[in-house]
Amino acid sequence: MKLTICGGRLIDPAQNIDELIDIHLADGRVLALGQAPAGFNPERTIHAEGLVVTPGFIDIGAHLREPGPSYKGNLRSETKAALSGGYTTICCRPDTSPCIDSSAVAQQILDKAEVLSQAKVMPLGAMTQGLKGTHLSNMAGLQHTGCVAVTNMRQPVESTLVLRRCLEYASTFDLRVVFYPEDHWLKADGCANEGALASRLGLGGIPASAEAIGLARVLHLIETTGVKAHFGMLSTARAVEMIADAQTRGLPVTADVDMAHLIYTEAEINGYNSMFYVEPPLRTEADRDALRQGVKEGVLSVITSAHLPHEEAAKMAPFAASEPGMATLETTLSQGLTLVEDGLFTLPQLVERLTSGPAQALGLTAGSLATGQPADLCLFDPQAQWQVSHDTLFTAGENSPLMDQTVSGQVKYAIVDGKVAFERQ
Amino acid sequence: MTSMTDVHPIDPRNVQLTEDGKLRHFLSIGGLSKEILEEILDTADSFVNIGEKSVKKVPLLRGKTVVNLFFENSTRTRSTFELAAQRLSADVLNLDISKSATAKGETLMDTLQNLEAMGSDMFVIRHADSGAQHFIASQVTPDVAIINAGDGRHAHPTQAMLDMYTIRKHKGDFSKLKVAIVGDILHSRVARSQVQALNILGAEEVRLIGPKTLLPDNLAELGAKLYTRMEDGLKDVDVVIMLRLQKERMDGALLPSEGEFYRLYGLTSEKLNYARPDAIVMHPGPINRGVEIESVVADGPQSLILNQVSYGIAIRMAVMSMTVSGQMQQKNQQDQNNEEASA
Amino acid sequence: MTQITLPEVDQLIAQMAQQLKDHIARNGRDNIALVGIHSGGVWVAERLGTLLEHDEAMGMLDISFYRDDYTRVGLNPSVKPSSLPFDTEGRHVVLVDDVVMSGRTIRAAMNELFDYGRPESVTLVALLDLPGRELPIQPDICGQQLTLAPGQRIKLTGPDNLSLELQESP
């Protein structure tokens, strides 16, 4: 398949490109930028005037709900939602049911994703068996099958010795480890940011120090083991400082923040709105500002969706009894554009955090439109207004905090391996 | 002193009030005006001496059905609500629902929708999850008046209002009063509601006293001064409110022992001497003698613990009649609007 | 519209006091208990009590909790406690209100009265009797009968210097 996209504003942070320039794709790869090579005869030309053309977005840590309860979503619905949100690659969470702690489960997901041929799926594997935090998973096997990193999600590894061995073992294969730092015991039964608001609402608080302590424990072990680590969904100002400090000292660490924590603060849970029950909890304005600054400066080189789809009933319960998480794959771009609009960072910066940032963090061959790279692209109209609703969303998740609201910025095409995998009607 | 409602905006969807600002649910003290709190106290005033009549009833809620839904057991609290509803001539249905039966929100919703379909006019609800009643009022059964009989650590507004009633009746003007609340503040929905009510009603000073494991710093933002020593915290106060200490607080390393707690924070006649000589002593009950309070104090002349119980019925009658009234007005308003729209 | 001349309240009450005295004497009810309905009825009852040299404390009823239109208009936010500082059992109660029209207020008041006990008898005294009765209730003693034009309402103002005021409802 030969494809030309002409007239669009091409932003490729990996090559430092932001200009009106055509791009030509052939055999699933980027063939050329600008002038078409002599004799190139595209089968299709997409006229992208008014659209922004970028590498396809990459997400670290969306939940694709397969294997697992299908009423919360499945690979078909969620990889379609990914394309609709501009994502061509999803590094999905291992806390499925059963969890991705064996090559068999990983292979099952990869096979199905290939058949669906929607967004590419690159699983994160479980760091310990059953995510129980006691026995090493078959990391080499998981890596061989196609897992791009391992993680224990928010499940605790109680023994620091076991944790150290996990890191040593992963570093044997140069396998990256992803952490969602949190001290399990300080978190206790908390569900909201510890502070005056949670106190008034009578909700169990999770102190910011739970994140800092979890982070500090891992950072010390990274220092001694040299494992490449990525920290996901940071929520506190202190954590941003600690990551910046570790990076300054030359530790091989990257970090991300999810879009919700860049947009919202704990004030949203006033009135017990369970839609804003997320893990880690939404924090203070000062934390949000520090996270935004971290994204701007590159300490946080990745923005994730933290997509976690749920059926309606999961949220129809008293706050702490409801299930945490938001369905976000299809609105992360729109929310990011509001931050660009507000001048918090530039559009190329936003694109970088959604493309080359995550690619570098996990060492993926993706996230750039340099000649010869996989032809994964996202074409979006930054001005297009649309209403978030069950009719416009492809995710099975009914837990979008933006439900029934009108937002700006909509993906028009998603191209995977040179083929138009998604085209909005 | 700033109250918590100044620090954080109150819930914009304030589900407790009708469009004209009348009470239609009673979920928490936060978000209510001084006028509404005073209206509750005034209305309760007219119910207090109902016990003098040979027929201890008024026909106000005749034909209405009140359902007591207790997801946490509490025979004491439930009985006062039951009596209050009966004195208003309502029909009362008591349901004790164990937590296991409604471990999922879905079943909680099913239960409530069933009860609503049976034509209930009011749910009196106690639930272990903070905000449960709020969720029910805003999501499940908006046309049934919801009275919060205690939710998690969040609020116990009728208890707080009966305490305010007790204070007003025996001490008068709030603006001249220093009030101390002592004990397990961290887990106390009663304390949270009391602090809010005292702030809204304009108390001169609200103090919270306890060890730091049971007294998080951020509670100061509710509108209170924090003390860790009884002799400092009780100095010159007009009202001492003791909280109940749950036995399970010794687990989880919050307290070493009941004995040490009593020695430091138990209200003995000796410690009561730090307060003003005419200070009154209150306790939401049931009291643990020798843990929170010494028997001579609990039974002494300054104690109003028994008065609180009888005022509690009047307060619950007041809140019940006001919320049903608010619901009915809201309904009439909506009917009228619908009529106008269809005409 | 015909102009109504409003009666002098004190004059009416003096005349009612005399009638009440005769009524009591005629029926041999020397053991009366005065009960006023909040708020106008209480003012009228106070003056009757003075004129009759009745020195026992008077009862007051606020019938808000007994109204039959609670489900339509809701609770009166300025409800006052009722108080009967005497035992009504076996007493000849004189129930006083300012205006009797539909009769519903008197119905509510009698319901409340009976929740306090069983009086020997109840005598109804009203300052004004307006047409528009919806219940079989008639005052035993009445200051004056009055007919208002449509849209007019009458109101007793007090508690000092009682006077009647005509209001045009919009």
How would you describe this protein?
The complex is a heterotrimer of chains A (425), B (343) and C (170). By secondary structure, chain A is α/β, with parallel strands linked by helices. Chain A is 30% helix and 23% strand. Chain A has one domain: Metal-dependent hydrolases (TIM Barrel, Alpha-Beta Barrel). Chain A has 13 helices and 21 strands. In chain A, β9 (87-92), α2 (103-116) and β10 (120-121) form a beta-alpha-beta unit. In chain A, α4 packs across α7, α7 (208-225) runs parallel beside α8 (237-248) and α8 runs parallel beside α10 (285-297). The model of chain A has no long low-confidence stretch (mean pLDDT 97). With 343 residues, chain B is of the alpha/beta class. Chain B has helices spanning 4-7, 34-48, 75-87, 105-117, 132-140, 157-171, 189-200, 230-233, 258-265, 269-272, 295-298, 305-342; strands at 65-70, 91-96, 122-127, 145-151, 178-182, 205-209, 225-227, 239-242, 280-282. Chain B has a 5-stranded parallel β-sheet with strand order 7-6-5-8-9. In chain B, strands 2-1-3-4 form a 4-stranded parallel β-sheet, sandwiched between helices. In chain B, α3 (75-87) links the parallel β1 (65-70) and β2. In chain B, α2 (34-48) crosses α6 and α6 packs across α7. By secondary structure, chain C is an alpha/beta fold. Chain C has one domain: Rossmann fold, CATH 3.40.50. In chain C, α1 packs across α2 (40-51). Chain C is globular and about 45 Å long. The mean pLDDT of chain C is 90. At the A-B interface, α6 of A face α4 and α5 of B. Chain C: Keywords: Glycosyltransferase, Transferase. Chain C: It comes from Oceanospirillum sediminis. Chain C: GO terms for molecular function: uracil phosphoribosyltransferase activity.
